[in-house]
Amino acid sequence: MSLALLVACAMQAASVNWNTGPLKTPGAGGVPTTTNVSDANGPWTVIAMFWTDDGGAAGAPVVLTAGAMDTTASLGSFSAITSDSFAIGSTYWGQLTITDNAGNWTRSTSVSSFVIVPTGNTAFNTGNFTWEPTWTAVPEPTSMALLALGVAAVGLRRRFRK
Fold first, then answer.
1. Which helix (H) or strand (E) is 91 found in, with range?
2. Which of 39, 41, 45, 58 is 20 to 30 A away from residue 72, measured at CA?
3. Average pLDDT by consecutive 10-residue portion of the chain (162 residues)?
4. Distance separating alpha carbons of residues 12 and 89, to the nearest angstrom
């Protein structure tokens, strides 16, 4: 009986409550403005990614059945509670990425470690990570395709000129 109880305790799983903290919209050069991200200037999607610890570095991905993304900003912040996929007392790594749904801008946090607490949900928030200082413009697919086509045309022209 005590062996079964020990195994049950060792198999306990916990959830992670992640939160972005307030996020500001991208401005000129990707510098954050003073305007909170919201449904009015979005929509936006935040995706949470977590990995197991591999000797002090991010290892295998943690597969979440719930709580991997949030699309509704509340006062410029996003949050969710993950599924019960985390072992109590274990170290994990996490990263959040926000993208506007038009695909023009993206911004990510640092990949940071945290330990799962024995009771309640573990917090993964601005106390654990830092955001990149600026937003990154995502290149338009058509522009990239035209650039690739131009490079190919120059290469073919040189090849057949000889």
1. strand 91-100
2. 58
3. 41 85 93 92 92 91 89 88 89 94 92 93 92 89 72 76 64
4. 10
